[in-house]
Each structure stands twice: as C-alpha cells, then as structure tokens.
User: What shape does this take?
Amino acid sequence: MTRSDLWQTRGNVFTDGLAKGVLRYQWCVDCGASLTLTRYACTRCGSQSLEWRDAAGTGTVYARTLVSRPPSDEFRALVPYLLVLVDLDEGPRIMAHGAPALKIGDRVCARIQQVAGSPLPVVYPRRNNDVKDTNTGEAK
Amino acid sequence: MTSAYIIGVGNTAFGRHEGQQALDLMAHAALNAVADAELRCRDIDGVLCGYATTLPHLMLSTLFCERLGLSPTYGHSVQLGGATGCAMLMLASKLVRSGVCRNVLVVAGENRATGQSRDASIQTLAQVGDPEYEIPNGASVPAYYALMASRYMYETGTTESDLAELAVLMRRHAACHPDAHLRTPITCDDVLASKPVATPLKLFDCCPISDGASALIVSSEANDRPRILIRGAGQAHQHQHLTAMPSVLDCGAAAAAQRAFDDAGLSIGDIDLLAIYDSFTITLAMLLEEIGFAPRGGAAQRVRNGDFRHDGVLPLNTHGGLLSFGHCGVAGGMAHAVEAVRQLSGRADERQVAKATHAFVHADGGVMSSHVSLILSREGEV
Assistant: This one.
C-alpha cells in the first residue's frame, strides 16, 4: 500500500483489511518500526511517515484466556471461546480467536474468518511447531 | 507553598441502594464529608467530580453543585477510569497549594448496580477496549485482565491459588467494615471453585458491581484532629489498550510510584499502610509487585505470612478493597483513600491498625493504563 499521512490513517484501515481477508499493520518509513494498533505517529521515533503493509499471519501466542462470560449476545452462542494476544512475526501484537488448546509460546498462523458475524483473525497451530517452551501460563 | 490536608471524608454504604440515583448517592457522601470536616457547604470553593456511567451528563460537576447549592470558584468533572479518584485528589492538592482554592470537595458516586442491567454495565466497561482491534473479538474488561493475568503468571510463576489468597484477604477485611458490600467469609477453595469468567479469573477474582459514593475534602488549613497531609503524588500513562502494553512487568505503576516518592521525599521503606486498587486479584498482585511491596510472584506469600492483615507489618486495603468493600466506579477507587485517612487519623474503629504514619494509595484506570500514586502522611510525627 502507499505511504500514508495523517489523513490517510482516517477510517478503519485495519478493519477494512479484515473484510478483504488481509491482516494489515502500520510500518514506519523512517525507522522501520512495526506498530501495534493504528497510530498517527511512530511509537519509536515519532515520525508521521507511516505506511500500511500486509502481515504474513504467522506469530507466537503472547497471552490466552478462555472466555465464559461474553460481553454481548452475539458472542453468547460461542462460549467458551479462546481469545489470544499474538505477536506477529513482523512485530505488531494483535488480539485474535483461537482453538482452546493453544498455549502461550505456541507458534500460530492466522486466517481471517467470520466470527459472530464479523471477519476476525483466527489463529491455528502451525504444523511444524518449533515451540520450545510449553508452559501453559496457568496453574492446573 | 502551603500544604494540602485531607480534613474530612464521607461515604455511603456500598452495595445495593434501590431507587437511589447517582446524584443522591454523591450528595450523601459529600454532606458526610463536609460535616466530618466541620465545614459548611458555603466554605467549599472548589468541586472536583468523577463521572458516572449511569448519568453520562456533559457537566456533572455543575449539575451536582446546582442540586446541592454550591457555587464554587473552580469546578469540573474528571475522567480517568479507576484512577479518577486519585487524579482528583492530586489535582485538589495542586489547587490548594497554589492558592486557587481553600476547600476542595472531591466526590463521586453512582448507582452502578441497580441503575442498569449487569449486561449493560459489562458492555459499557468493555468500551475501554480498542474499537477495531479488541472489542470486535468479543472481549470484555474481565477478558482483558485475564489475558494480562495469563502472561503475568507465565512470566512470574504466580498460580491461581496465589491470586485466591488476595480475594480471601479482602473478604476478611471487609467483614470488619459495616459499609462493605460483600462480608461473608470465603476460603481459597471457594475462590478456586467459583464460576469461571475468563481463565484464569473466576467470579471471586473479580470485584462486584456496587452502588455507592465517596467524598473527601482537601483544604489549605488542617483542623484539630491529626493533620493528614497529601505529601506526594505521581502519575504515569504508558498505554490505553492492553494490546499496546509492551510488557506486563512494566505497566506504569512503578513509574507513577517513584514520582510520588520523589515528590514526598520518602522511600518505599517509609510506608506502613497500603491502599491499592484491586479491581481483580491480578490487578492487586501486579501493582504490589511492580511497585515493590512484594517480590515478583511473591504477593501471595506475604498474604500467607499475615503481613497485609490489620495486625501485620504492612496492612493492605483494611476496608476490603474493590474486591469486597465493593466497586461503584470512581467512588470505589476513592474508598481506598477514605480508609487510609481514617486509619492515619486513628478513626478506623475496630479496624484500626497499630501504626500508620505514611500511607501509599494507588489506583489504575483502563487495563493498567493510567496510574496515579499518592502518599498521605500524618503530620507531626516521624
């Protein structure tokens, strides 16, 4: 995608990407930092020269929770569902849905799928799992 | 520069107040605080007011002042999530010390439990998430804290049983306070067996939704009672959204605390009373450990040692905290400060601790997003 200025970060570029089946993130043209969430300026160097890129979708599970108490009716039918934070290989962190067996440290790959009526990132374990740490992060 | 003293405190009972509106509860707490300060309403020249999710008015402070017959020379509302109360006290201190005001009323309250459905409350609160990246996933405030908890436990070795200790302690303390929302004793097994909300958090790891209000009067002149000084204050704001918090080991709590200690000219070893925000058990564990009141993963061990009890070396949330005294939004976070003032001035009745000279008060808003630390000291000693 093309370089963006403040005006080009208007709207919902990330959400529009999901609707097109693409996982987008911002990248700083000046220092090369990859940014989490949508920003007006680079979190590392402050530059406003940001461009949108497409992520490969591969990453590592940073945090996980199995949700039993949904915030809205749309999600009531899905409980319990697993929410994860994933550190994409390009650098940004995103929230996603995932299979309940996923653990912190698992290598995953994201696909954009319909969840409760909206296109959302859903992560699956990578086949060639190179996980070294299998700690679940939760007491059993 | 003059000093800023807390000369009066007031609160309603926390729990369910059927039929009471946000303004009713706020007025109740405010009038209690004014009476406690031995002032008249016309002595109040500054009003800082929290927000109320059940009364999202554009000018809540002005609305409240009109209803109560106050005509302050300075007044407005403040919005900083759970940190609002501490932020208002910090601002009140600045207003008094700079001579803008003599007596500032800091007040908040709402009918969060009876004024809306539980679903409405959960949905309102979930909006602190990012509207593109977080909320569409079906995330809620408990889910944000649960995600954070999973990572914190992974990095520090904290267990669900460890978190349960904090819930049990808060309930134990609430049992000693007549105004607390939840006073029935619980055990660690009860916490572990309570209804799942979002792993690793169960129902008893989460604060209740309460009705209630709190108020404090910050003044340039101390009264005859022990003089309670706002000795130091500090803030930190490092992120809004959980997704944007780089590390669960640096959420901003330590940075805010250090600024408060520097402001007060004190260090962590001087503190002998804690009043720390506890929206979830994980909140309390992370704040205690990041600020340095327990080693990483070690908060539960200090509970097991008895250190945080009324008769321990470092009493913590002697009113029962948000987890059991209750959470009605801004006023929930203010109840910690109200309790610290009562302890420091020797007015905590059967809950009174033996030695309280310097209290550390801390609150966070959002998902450990905005942090405000206060150090309240009893003047004239140490």
